[in-house]
Write a structure and sequence with these properties.
Keywords: Endonuclease, Hydrolase, Nuclease, Nucleotidyltransferase, RNA-directed DNA polymerase, Transferase
Organism: Triatoma infestans (Assassin bug)
Structural class: alpha+beta
GO molecular function: endonuclease activity; RNA-directed DNA polymerase activity
Distance between the termini: 75 Å
Protein name: Putative endonuclease-reverse transcriptase
Pfam families: RVT_1
Largest sheet: 5 strands, mixed
Radius of gyration: 30 Å
Oligomer: single chain
């Protein structure tokens, strides 16, 4: 409709009332303008053969006014569905207050709770539904909505909108002919994901009706499968149980006109020790690959149940992101230090710390390398420059603090702990957390998130917070706990510098109190690099990079430019060597005279 969202936001009161009257009239009369259901589709190429339509991702562009209408319909339907618990707890995608963190935490916890038992295994089937959103049969959808208790008027209204729905493909200002939407939910507006959730909400009940049993969380709750959008993870306690559940899934897909992409569906047997040889699992006579790891919702999960190798995967992503940031900085020639670090935070560190509130505690030193690699590359520092020097010079917090601090990165570990404790007792993440609390003394569980959280709090002297498990007190002490952690990490870095022989004079020239002032000067990065290299130079074996050239200093050799038999180190070069007296008097004399002996 070519109406910008900003225009609708700035409507005067009279026009707001007119729009309200129009939408109410359409709702009461159940007469939607046919053009309102027209969708413009932009196709973005992903990879593979460009002639294969399946290798394109569609971006739907809806009329702006229709988005307002569907958002109103969404609020009504979602409120009804949540109040009546129509959508099962196992469904975590497209729901308020739930997200990928809930899904990863629950899955990891359930797996580790099972692996706590001797010789126990968990067969996780990561199911890929083929074009699930585009395959929804409309007749089955209307029947399911009616069966769930959605009002007949609401269903009629949706049905009319879907009957009018059509798509035109836009490419280089050219439009295709209209293509009627005969299957699938509409995309490009907020209501469709909720409709898909309702369409697939009977999956768990279907499994239970077929006699399937889940993995126990406690004495009263088990987990058969977990859903996030169209991603399904089916959990089984044996090979035979996994094969049985695949057959149940096949029946469900047949009844609901859905299909499974067998090539992208994977099975990961989670276990301790060696895994015995087993037959291949099959789906509709097609063999499914058995893997040692799988990336679920962006987080690599390994068959050991631990996240120790997950950090390496995210570090590789961080290397790519760092390169992109450095390339942008090179092209834009930014002279502002704040711009450099903000760009790193938004483009690189946010990638490395994705959902790290769940997995990051097991690989803190690995993910810290991403930040340090970026800073060392940016400032052309030697790779062996101690990390503590780099953090103190640039005023950057240890990733352990950034990963902890929810004010910098949303929903990190402390904030996730608060969210867990604030959940109702029937929520799956809360049930898993309570079970992990009961396994605190166990040494056989591969990864216990609660135990790791306890260790951090105890190391900060905040044991009372852990013992109390009082969410109000935890919220109240959040800032104090953050300050304790940051001060603890900074103190560790300062102590490391004081006890280091790498650069004994650094303590004399550094404030040890945040980012050094020279880095905040708006000047060419080449100058900042030179100063930072000199300040953090190794006193014995120093390399200085300047304008594409490398200058080396060797402490075990004498200076080749003077006859004083002085060691060829960076201090001799700057302060003593007579060969550079002219330059020293010109550039450094007024500074050297101010420095006490």
């Amino acid at each position: 409709d070519m109406i910008p969202n900003e225009c609708l936001k700035m409507l005067p009161p009279a026009w707001e009332h007119y729009l309200l009257y129009l939408l109410n009239k359409i709702w009461c009369s159940e007469d939607i303008p046919s053009t309102w259901a027209k969708i413009k589709l932009k196709l973005l190429f992903k990879s593979g053969n460009k002639l294969d339509p399946g290798n394109y991702r569609g971006i739907s562009i809806f009329n702006t006014v229709v988005k307002i209408l569907t958002s109103i319909l969404y609020i009504r339907l979602n409120t009804w569905a949540e109040n009546n618990q129509v959508i099962p707890e196992e469904k975590m995608g497209f729901r308020n207050g739930r997200g990928c963190t809930d899904a990863i935490f629950t899955l990891s916890s359930v797996i580790n709770i099972q692996l706590h038992h001797q010789k126990r295994k968990v067969w996780a089937i990561f199911v890929d539904l083929k074009k699930a959103f585009d395959s929804v049969c409309h007749n089955i959808l209307w029947h399911k909505l009616f069966k769930l208790g959605v009002s007949v008027k609401y269903i009629r209204f949706l049905k009319q909108m879907y009957e009018y729905a059509s798509v035109v493909i836009s490419e280089n200002d050219k439009l295709s002919n209209e293509i009627p939407v005969t299957a699938g939910v509409l995309q490009g507006e907020i209501l469709s994901p909720l409709i898909f959730n309702l369409f697939i909400s009977d999956l768990i009940d279907y499994f239970k009706a077929q006699g399937a049993q889940g993995l126990n969380i406690d004495n009263n709750r088990d987990l058969i499968l977990q859903l996030y959008a169209d991603d399904i993870v089916i959990l089984a306690y044996s090979w035979a149980d996994a094969q049985s559940k695949l057959k149940i899934l096949g029946k469900y897909c047949e009844l609901n006109n859905l299909s499974v992409n067998v090539k992208k569906t994977k099975i990961v047997p989670f276990h301790k020790g060696r895994l015995k040889k087993h037959k291949n699992l099959t789906f509709n006579n097609n063999s499914i690959d058995c893997e040692k790891s799988f990336t679920y919702l962006g987080v690599p999960m390994f068959s050991s149940g631990k996240f120790t190798r997950t950090g390496d995967i995210f570090l590789k992503k961080g290397v790519v992101a760092n390169s992109a940031v450095l390339e942008i900085l090179k092209r834009c020639k930014s002279d502002c230090w704040v711009t450099k670090v903000q760009l790193f935070d938004s483009m690189s560190e946010s990638v490395v710390l994705y959902l790290s509130e769940v997995w990051g505690i097991q690989c803190l030193e690995t993910i810290e390398r991403s930040q340090l690699n970026f800073l060392k590359t940016l400032l052309h520092l030697q790779k062996n420059t101690p990390n503590c020097y780099v953090r103190l010079e640039t005023g950057r917090s240890h990733c352990k603090f950034q990963w902890w601090n929810s004010d910098i990165f949303c929903k990190k570990m402390y904030q996730w702990w608060i969210k867990l404790l604030s959940m109702p007792d029937d929520r799956l993440p809360k049930l898993c957390y309570l079970k992990l609390l009961g396994l605190m003394q166990s040494t056989s569980i591969p990864f216990n998130w609660a135990h790791e959280m306890r260790n951090i709090l105890f190391s900060l002297g905040s044991s009372a917070l852990w013992e109390g498990q009082n969410v109000d007190m935890i919220k109240k002490e959040k800032l104090s706990t953050f300050n304790k952690l940051e001060n603890h990490l900074i103190s560790n870095d300062i102590n490391s510098v004081l006890n280091s022989s790498y650069n004994p004079i650094y303590c004399s020239i550094s404030t040890l109190q945040g980012c050094e002032s020279y880095l905040k000067f708006n000047c060419n990065i080449t100058k900042l690099r030179l100063v930072s290299q000199l300040r953090m130079a190794n006193m014995k074996h120093c390399n200085i990079y300047f304008k594409g050239k490398k200058y080396q200093f060797h402490y075990d050799e004498n200076c080749k430019f003077c006859l004083n038999n002085k060691k060829d180190d960076i201090l001799h070069f700057i302060l003593e060597c007579p060969a550079y007296l002219i330059y020293r008097n010109k550039y450094l004399k007024r500074f050297i005279n101010k420095v006490p002996n």
